Amino acid sequence: MKLLLIEDEIDLQDSIVKLLISEGFSVETASDYNHAEEKIHLYNYDCVIVDITLPDGSGLDIIKSLKKNNSKVGIIIISAKNSLDDKLTGLDIGADDYLTKPFHLSELNARIKSIIRRRGLEGSNELLFNEITIIFDSRKVLINQHEIILTKKEYDLLLFFMMNKEKVLSKEVIAEHLWGDDMSISADSFDFIYTHIKNLRKKLIDKGCNDYIKSVYGIGYIFSEE
Hints:
By secondary structure, the chain is of the alpha/beta class.
């Protein structure tokens, strides 16, 4: 799962990033309005955590930009402002939740997971596809009720595929989802993707799973039953 944290308080930003990475999320950051605007137009995220007060703009305008582009991303506002008007405005324009500073990091983590479950997993903690079960909170994968051990990238790949089944995913989209903007897209990136997908397929098949990951010539991959 890929998150964008828009927060100008660097100490708080670092603390949140450290926690979310320990929870298995991929996290990108932006410390000002312009940087955040650039990122939301270039990349896709599963959840955006945004502070209202930024050095060069308002986090509310970031939310408006996301909604204007029909983004389906989950949105949590984190703000030192605790007025009812601010909360209502944020929720009215499309935020899913509002957390007032200071807050416990564990509460932010719980709210992010809740939003992802609601939006991507239809409110469940489990994502099911035939013999495959992904248990989101514990990051476990079961094949015919038997646990399979995957690396972080293999788990992220499988979850990404299952949440986008029957959709052709380009190699660029997969690379960007797995590594974000920390890694430039190049031929080497695609070699990494191929290696991770090859290893994931082998582990799934060895556990008795059907081969649902199909290559789409010249484009990328599709997770499909057909």
